[in-house]
Amino acid sequence: GAGVSQSPSNKVTEKGKDVELRCDPISGHTALYWYRQSLGQGLEFLIYFQGNSAPDKSGLPSDRFSAERTGGSVSTLTIQRTQQEDSAVYLCASSSRWTSGRSEQYFGPGTRLTVT
Amino acid sequence: GQQLNQSPQSMFIQEGEDVSMNCTSSSIFNTWLWYKQDPGEGPVLLIALYKAGELTSNGRLTAQFGITRKDSFLNISASIPSDVGIYFCAGLLNYGGATNKLIFGTGTLLAVQP
Prior knowledge:
Shape of chain B: globular
Structural class of chain A: mainly beta
Order of helices and strands of chain A: EEEEEEEEEE
Low-confidence stretches of chain B: none
Oligomer: heterodimer
Largest sheet of chain B: 6 strands, mixed
Order of helices and strands of chain B: EEEEEEEEEEE
Distance between the termini of chain A: 37 Å
Helix content of chain B: under 10%
């Protein structure tokens, strides 16, 4: 079946502009996650959505970052007033609802954001 | 952000050799996952571990969940050129409830010489 999809695949923006990154999770997956990967680094957790519960926003680096998940499916990560340090690959993942103590996250291809 | 200690940082081996990499943490995890990432792609799940002491295989890959729940290793036997990539371990910080985030290791770059 279809995996996690993200758009755009690449985004170049000028410092100070706002950007929106989109994630379409695997159909039927109730949990959605955003991570950030800086050049040569591991992945850094940003935010987690689970069904209708309040999202875990503990990883968002500043109030310039926000995310929404509409209708329990598609999610948009918004970065306002972008800075050069925001340049990174933004990865989205989804997983099915936690059952039997198991939850595996599946990742999309990422959006490479470059702030000039 | 928080990251797990993963070693080695990089490995350059000959085709056919076995590979071993590991992750350690000061925190206890309930789940350990191993991912592989190719250039320009998202991480792909290789193996998931859910119980302390669990040993799980996936083809030429074998991974173990440490007894202390603070470490895990991944072995690749008889490496082939397509094993090239960056391997990440990840620990699940909490499960169920309000959070379910993965803490990732720093990655191991594997290069395989044909």
